[in-house]
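Loading example: each entry is read as two labelled lines plus one structure line.
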Amino acid sequence: MTDQDLRVQLLLTGNEIMSGDTVDSNSAMISRRLGELAITVHRRVTVGDDVQLLQQELAAMASGSDVVIVNGGLGPTVDDLTAEILATVAGVGIEQHPEAVAHLEQWCAGRNLPLNDANMKQALLPAGAAIIDNPIGSAVGFELSVQGCRVICTPGVPGELAAMLDEILASLATQLPRPVERSILRLQTFGLGESTAQQMISDAMPHWPDEVALGFRAGAPQMEIKLTIDRAADAPARQRCREELEALFGDHIIGEGDTLLAQRVLELLRERGSTLTTAESCTGGLIASMLTRIPGSSDAFHAGFVTYANDIKHSVLGVEQSVLVDQGAVSEPVVRQMAMGALERARADYAVAVSGIAGPDGGTEDKPVGTVWLAWGDRAHIRTRCLRWPVERTLFQTMVAAGALDAIRRLLLGIEEEPRYFAQRRAR
Amino acid sequence: MTDQDLRVQLLLTGNEIMSGDTVDSNSAMISRRLGELAITVHRRVTVGDDVQLLQQELAAMASGSDVVIVNGGLGPTVDDLTAEILATVAGVGIEQHPEAVAHLEQWCAGRNLPLNDANMKQALLPAGAAIIDNPIGSAVGFELSVQGCRVICTPGVPGELAAMLDEILASLATQLPRPVERSILRLQTFGLGESTAQQMISDAMPHWPDEVALGFRAGAPQMEIKLTIDRAADAPARQRCREELEALFGDHIIGEGDTLLAQRVLELLRERGSTLTTAESCTGGLIASMLTRIPGSSDAFHAGFVTYANDIKHSVLGVEQSVLVDQGAVSEPVVRQMAMGALERARADYAVAVSGIAGPDGGTEDKPVGTVWLAWGDRAHIRTRCLRWPVERTLFQTMVAAGALDAIRRLLLGIEEEPRYFAQRRAR
C-alpha cells in the first residue's frame, strides 16, 4: 500500500487511560478512519493529565509532524487541560470563543439545563482556534496551527469522537498531496483461522498482485479479510482477487462490510418469509441474544428456549426421559428432539439446538469439556453433528453459538458441502 | 496516593495496533497490575513494526527511565523485531539462548509439533538476557539492562502477557525503594452514575481522609468504586470510609472485587437452594446468557424463555390473548403473566420477566423507545415496574437485563426499599 506523504501523530491524554481503568479504543477508531484516506498514524503517545508532560510532548510532536491529533481533556473539570496546553505551546492566549458559547447555550437549552461555570470552561479556547462541531456533546473540538503543524483536539467520549471524525476527515482530505483513491473492501468470514487463510492464499494464488493489499483482522467469532487498493485503476485487479478468494473460501464468506452472522441469517429468513427458533443448553441464551441484538429481528425470530436442566428439556421441549437417561444430555438424539420440540412449540420453520459441555467442570473421558452436539433443520429433515471447541467457557459459548447460526445460514443458502471446520473440530 | 519513586514507561509495538485493526488492551492490563505495587506508568509510546523507529524510541525511553516494559514483537515472523532491537540498543549480539530452546522443545513436544526454523527464531535473544517463563505460549519473555534501565520484553498475545505478569511483578517488587503496602479495595455497584456518586460522597463526607484515595471506573452495566491506601496503617481509615459508603449507597453495592450481578444472584439462589427462571421479550435471551456465562450456573438456573412474538407469549407462557390485544405486549399485566407462566413451566422458585421497546423502531408517543415493563417475584407475590432507558438498542438490552437481575438480587436480600434508579428512570 502507498500511504499519503503526511506525518500524523496521536497524543492521548487521561489519567483513567494511564491507570488502565479505561481501555483506549479511541486511537484504534481514529487510525481506522484515517486509513480510509491512506493516512497512517506514525506514532502514538499516551500520558496522564499532567501539564508539564503534555506541553513537552505536544511541542515535540508538533515540531516533527504535519498533523497532531489530540484526544481527551476537553471536558468541564480541572483535569481537562487540552485547551490550556495547546495555547501555551502555540504561544497564544485563552479566550472565550463565541461559536463555542453559542454551541453550549444551545446544548444546555435542548436539555433544560442551566449553563454553569463548569460548562462555560469548555468555551475557553486558544485564540485563533477554529471550531469543530460536536453534534452530540457539549465540548466542541478545535484546531490551531503550531509552526505549520495542524493540531486537532478531539473529545475523549467515544461517541462524540466518532461524531466528529467525518468533519475532520473531510478537512484532512483537502490537504493531502495526492487525491484519495484508496478503497477498502472488507469480507466477513466464519470458520477460518488467520494463519490457515494466509497459507491457503499463498498456496492457491502465488501471483497475488502487489497493488491489492491483503489484510486480516481476527476476531471471535468472525474473521475479516481486507482488500485495499490505492488507485481506482486497480479495481479490476481487486475484483479478480475477490473472485479467487470466493472460489477458495466459498461459503466461509458471510458477507461484506460489517455483516454479522446473525444479521445474514435474519436476512435470509426474511427473504423467504420464514422463522427460526432456538433450543439452547450450553450456550444458555446466547444464540437468541445474538439474533435479537439486530434491529428488526422480530420479523424472523419469535421464540427461543433455554433448557439448561434435563427435566426442562423433557417438560418444555418434550425430549424423552429415557433418551436423556440412556444417552445423556450431550447426545445426538437429545439435540434432535430439542430441535423438533422447539419447532413444534414455536411453530417456526427452522430450528437450531445445542447441547454441550462448556466447562470448566462437567467433562468426562468420553465427552470432554468443549464437546457439543448441534442439530439444525426443518420438520422434514434435522441434521446433527458433534464438534469440539476445547477453549475457555465464554469463548466456547461464543464459537458454538456462531457455529449454530452458521449451520442455519448454510442450510438457508442450500449449501450441502460441509464447512472446513467440521472436519477440524470433529469430536475424536 | 503516593506512587513509588520509579520511572516506568511502556513501549507498544505492532502494525495491527497502529492501524487500529486491534484495540490495545494490553497496556491497560499492565498498568492495572503495576498499580497494585503503587507503580504508575509515566508515559506510553506506540509504534508500528519499524526497526528504525523502534530503536530510536527504545533508546530514548531507556535513557530516561528505571524500567521500560516492551509489549509485542516476540513472535516467529519477520515482523517480530523486539529481540533484535533490544540487542542493537544494548550494544550486544543476538545468540541462541539454551533455556529458550529448552522451552520451545518442551512446548512443541507437548503439542506433537515439529520444532521448525520459524519457532527457533524465538530462541534468538540478546546476549546476557534473562528469561521470563511463558507458561502457555512458545515465546519466552526476556529482560536486559540498558545503561541501568531494566528493559522487560513481553508477548503481545493477551493471555500470554497475563500469565507472565505475576513473575514480572514479583521481580519489580524487589527493586522498589519502599515496601509495597498498597492495598486496593474494589466495590461493584449497579444503578449509580459516576458524577452522582461523586456528588453524593462530597456532600455526605466533606472530611474524606486524604490517605484513602477514591476512584471510579464506569462500565455498563456496573460501576466500580476503588478505595486505595498506600500504608497498612491506613486500613482502619479505609474501613471507616467503606462503612460510610455502605451507609450512603447501601444495597446499590453488589459486592467486592470483580463480582458480577449474575454471579451474586446465583450465589444468593444457591444459598437457599432456590432456582430462577427468565421470560424475556426485548432482552431476547441476554438475561439467560448473563446467568449462564457464570460457571456452575446450572445449580440455580434451569430454564429460560425468549418470547419475542405475541402469539408465543400466549402459546408458550400462557399470557391471555385478550390482554395482549387490549394492553399491548409492553404492559403490566403482560409481564406479570409472563412471569407467572415461566414460574409454572420451569417449576422454578423465582421468575423475572421483561417486555419493552429496544428500538430503533417500534416506539409510540405513549410508549417511546426505551420503555420497559419488568416483573419479578415468586408465586406468592409478583412485583412490577415500568422504567425508561432511552439509549441505543444494545445498551438498552444490557441495562434492562442488569436491572432485571438487580431486582431479583434485592428480592433475595429482602430489601424492600426501592433503588435510586427506579425514581430516576420512572416512565412518566
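Chain B touches chain A through 72 residues (CB under 8 Å).
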